[in-house]
Amino acid sequence: MSDRRVDVCANCGIESAGDAVKLKDCTACRLIKYCGVDCQRAHRRQHKKACKKRAAELKDERLYGQGCERPEGHICPICTLPIPLPMNEHSGFYICCTKRVCYGCVVAAGKRDIFDCPFCRTPALEDEAILLAKLQKRADAKDPTALEALGEQYGTGKCGLEKDVPRAIELWSEAAGLGSQDSHFNLGIRYFEGDGVPRDAAKGVYHWEEAAMQGHVLARHNLGNHETQNGNYERAVRHWLISAKMGEKWSLDAIKDMFVDGIATKQQYASALKGYQAAMEEMKSHDRDVAEEELASMRSTAG
């Protein structure tokens, strides 16, 4: 006799029989199978709480188990090191090639008399209209990075465009559908704050979750803040542990405050601190140190 396990419908008990009876997984809990929609509905009515609980567990497995490394777009394409946070203070975004390059590589290129785009060598003084046309062409080809960047131009009124938040939302939504974590993050901000769209905190959190599961550090930090506001401190610490280990100082400080208040454990704070220090070490380079010194000197002179 065969020991092979036979799958059965959780409601009526019918066995899977090749092509004659094909069982489908419960879309909520993924633990049981049904032979059809009627059995699925009947079983759901009886075991709704169990399915709901399992669905929440599966979601948390994805939410806390994915996105623990920086995404490709947050790594300098020249030195291939993660860009320090906040990225806009340590790197420049180039519309010509839709690449974000760390200031260490920008300064290093300048020392070699390269003052154009350090990645694609597009002339630095190229007309904004030409750059915008190139960006639009890439966006028309459904490049998610270009769509996100074009949305940024509309959202802030840059590159000669009039500020048009609804158009930015439209572009970010399209880019998010194509997998852009930055677009998910931007949409999360807009929906959570009701900026340019009706306020919808649930939709804002949804977009932050999607971004966080793709490695967006600030989206992960914001989820921790949101959980804190709802009194879910354990969930908040779990988010901040991930983002702190990816180099987010705000998350490290938040865990430290939780530790001082007796909410986070000593082990959690120690783990966050060790991970943060390792992430910072990974982002260091001689060129970045030089760039930081030059920027500090420029700020001092300007002040």
UniProtKB/TrEMBL annotation:
Pfam families: Sel1, zf-MYND. Keywords: Metal-binding, Zinc, Zinc-finger. SUPFAM superfamilies: HCP-like, HIT/MYND zinc finger-like, RING/U-box. InterPro entries: Sel1-like (IPR006597), Sel1_AlgK (IPR050767), TPR-like_helical_dom_sf (IPR011990), Znf_MYND (IPR002893). Residues 9-51 form the MYND-type domain. Gene3D superfamilies: 6.10.140.2220, Tetratricopeptide repeat domain (1.25.40.10). GO terms for molecular function: zinc ion binding. PANTHER family: ERAD-ASSOCIATED E3 UBIQUITIN-PROTEIN LIGASE COMPONENT HRD3, SEL-1-LIKE PROTEIN. Belongs to the sel-1 family. This is MYND-type domain-containing protein.
